[in-house]
Amino acid sequence: MPLFSSLTAVASRSAAGALARARGAGTVAAAGLLALMVGACGSLSVAGARRGVISAVGAENEYANVLEQIGGRYVHVSSILNDPNTDPHTFESSPSVAQQVASAQLIVQNGAGYDTFMQRIEAASPNPRRRVIVVGRLLGLPADVPNPHLWYAPRTMPAVAAAIAADLSALQPSHASYFRTNLASFDASLAPLRRALAAFRARYAGTAVATTEPVADYLLQAMGLRNLTPFAFQADVMNGVDPAPEDIALETGLLTGHRVRLLCYNEQVADPLTASILRTALRSRVPVVGVYETMPTPGYDFQSWMLAEVDAIERAVTVHASTQRL
Fold first, then answer.
1. Alpha-carbon distance values, 171 to 18, 52, 145 (Å)
2. How far is it, in rounded angstroms, from Cα 288 to Cα 324?
3. pLDDT in tens, 237-295
4. What is the enclosing helix (H) or strand (E) of 54?
5. 94: exposed, middle or buried (C-beta count within 10 Å: 0-12, 13-18, 19+)?
6. Which regions of 63-165 does DSSP assign to beta strands (E)?
7. What domains can you pick out in the chain, each with its CATH number?
8. Which residues, 6 or more positions from 17, have their beta carbon under 8 angstroms from its beta carbon?
9. How far apart (Å, rounded) are the C-alpha atoms in residues 108 and 160?
10. In angstroms, rounded to a whole number, what is the distance separating the alpha carbons of residues 107 and 241?
11. Separation between Cα atoms, residue 88 and residue 91, nearest integer Å
């Protein structure tokens, strides 16, 4: 994995309050309002527990989806970042988000500097019985991991699902066998994705690609693809920093010189530079594939989303087809 120097740099374009451009009044206001809601939200949580339903929150809707798959009928799940048609980096918290977090018995958040707004809201409603799964920590990653888009790594969701099943079982021991059964079903449902990754890697390993950001880099690596875009360029775009002119020239040359078979770009985040790169790719007849930071909905669960991304990448490599939106 390429080295990147600091958590601050990574977090500066991460979702919500973790980002320099999104940090500020919205999150602070929500945290303040949250402190006023703790009593009411605590009552909601207790009521939910009496009904036998666990209140859970996924900071990103891909984690919320896995929560739903493991928890089934015994869990009521809310997601915070859940709109694939908006830029998650501009997220601002709200009283409703504060209420969801305050009443949650189980929370799954990405960590790795991506959704630090969750820590602010959680701190405003301390609850020693609340269980919080921080995915970066679960995977044993450093806080300043260069690429925080952890859900694209094939090892991530099996580990997250197992942690969810364990925490749900601790919250409702009488339903532990139900959660274990759902976990086994979830793990089995990942087999088509594993097969698709292995089949692609066996045929096309070493194929060169370009990206605007490291959103799907973990997936590209699992497929055996070579990303020729310098990580410094990807990180600058991710963090809202102007890339060095020589890196922009190199990225442009990858496309105009047909040195890559496709361009992956962040469908949810657009700025003049990435729009220009996208136009260059299309003019140069390099297929483009849009990737997402939150799961496209409706119509997808986590597994079908990942398979759709793999399929779009394979179609770009094999038949030179673009998939700008799933």
1. 29, 10, 31
2. 6
3. 999 999 999 999 999 999 999 999 999 999 988 899 999 999 999 999 999 999 999 99
4. strand 54-60
5. middle
6. 75-81, 106-109, 131-134
7. 7-189 (3.40.50.1980), 192-319 (3.40.50.1980)
8. 23, 24, 26, 27, 91, 93, 116, 117, 120
9. 8
10. 31
11. 5
> Coil, helix or strand for 323?
strand
DSSP three-state, residue 106:
strand
User: If we measure between CA atoms, which residue out of 66, 115, 71, 30 comes closest to residue 293?
Assistant: 115
Task: Return the number of other C-beta atoms located less than 10 Å from residue 194's C-beta.
Answer: 12
CB 210 within 8 Å of CB 227: yes
Which one-letter amino acid corresponds to residue 287? P
Q: Where are the beta strands (DSSP E) in 143-236?
A: 208-211, 226-227
Token output for 278 = 């996208």
Average pLDDT across each block of 10 residues of the chain; the chain has 326 residues. List them in order: 34 36 35 38 41 93 98 97 77 86 96 92 92 98 95 98 98 98 98 98 98 98 98 96 97 98 94 96 98 93 98 98 96
**DSSP helix, strand, coil percent of the chain (3-state; round to 5):** 55, 10, 35
* Residue whose pair of structure tokens reads 């504060």 in the numeric block: 98
pLDDT tens, 27-60? 333 333 333 333 334 434 444 444 689 999 999 9
